[in-house]
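Good morning C.,

I know you're traveling, so I'll keep this short. The sequence:
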Amino acid sequence: MRPDLGNPSLHRRFPSARAVRRPSSIRLLLRATVVAGLLLPAASTSVRGADLDPSSTKNDAVPPAETAAGPAGDDKPAPRSARGPLLAAGYLHAFDASIDEGGRFSTDTAFMAGRLGFPVGAGLILGTQLAWQGDWYSFDGENPVATPPDAKPWGDVHSLAGSVSLGRKVGKWWLNGAFTARFSFEVGASIGESFNPGGLVGAQYTFSPGLRLGGGLLIAARLEESPLIVPIPFVYWEITPQFVLSNTIAPSAYPRGPGIELAWRPTEDWALAFGGRWEFRRFRLDDGGPFIRQGGVGEDEGVPLWLRLTWRLGEHLRADVLGGYSVANRLRLSDANGNELRSSGTSSIPYLGAFVSWQF
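The tokens, ready to paste straight into the viewer:
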């Protein structure tokens, strides 16, 4: 059992320490969409066939990635021959940004994911996924997030996730449930105290080949915060043959949250999308540094806005390049019991990323 770092005598040594914050309902809902995004790709399946009508056309068939809420949309429906296991990877660089009240930081992030789905009888589809994300933070100068200010709040952070989902198509409905086991931690932190399990149940209805709407219920644990239980909406809407509005068409290895995108598809092989979302990373810290920070919790959140260019090279390969700015950013440092010690906003953060996926 960890010592009570919420002790007022400790807070007198660190005057910016505050009691556990209680997020507003709006913030909880925004965070829920992020956690749902972590579960959606993790719950995806990528094999269909046993419960598809052989006479159905490509547009009537279920797209290749089916999420916990229903068949995920895509910029372009994949050919039936491409609906197999999926491997994906990506890299994103967040350029140097200033921290309010002093200091600067930048981040390099890498992503990898593998996904597999297969029929298990009676029209059921079992899906599994493994995913990894690594964040390498670089802090420069004294900053108001660290304790003491001349230290670094945290260093290299990793997230590992494994998941399983079970879904079934019933008429025009897609029903699915998913469970994800996630570990998010700074290098050197306790893996056992970095556990973030979550679950999602949902349903989606196909009104037409170009319109699928649905919703789900998210239940997710959070490090040193109360569990999250929130309803989540899902949408895939082909406004015209060239324009799609959806929260399920992001690159496969980019799992930080579903957000919303408007995509323009001038040809079958190219797409240009504008999107945005609220995203956050919350992770266990190592046992180094001042006592009050040891085994604590770090958090990095913001609202990235982006332009994404997608290129499909044949039936199996998809490549994405995206760039934009993250706004309304904030870094937080909490003790091992979740009491907030430091919090600071940052300037807008420009970033650039590239992703690639192969559908077998």
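Safe travels,
E.
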